[in-house]
Amino acid sequence: MKFLQIKSEGEMALEAISLIGASTKRGDPNSIGMFGSGLKYAIASIIRQDIPFVVYSGEKEIRITTDPVEFGGKFFNRILINGAETSLTDSMGTEDWKGIFPFVREIYSNALDEDENATIKLVEDLEIEAGHTVFCLNATPEIMRFMARFDEYFVKDFKAITVTKDGAIHGKKKGTRIFRKGILAFEDEKHESIFSYDLYDIDINESRLVKNPYAMKRKVATMLEMCTNKSVLRRWINALKGGNAGLFEHECILEDWWSTQDNPELVEVILENKYYPVEITTMLEPEEISGRIGLSTKLLKRFLKYAPDSDILGLTTNQDSENVMIERKPSVQLFDKVHDAKTLLQRTAYRDRLSSTIKFAKFSKSHVLGQAKKGVIWLSIKLDVYGVEEIAKIIIEEQEHIHSGFNDETRNFQDHLFNLFYTELTRNTKTE
Question: Is 7 within the bounds of a domain?
Answer without folding.
Answer: yes
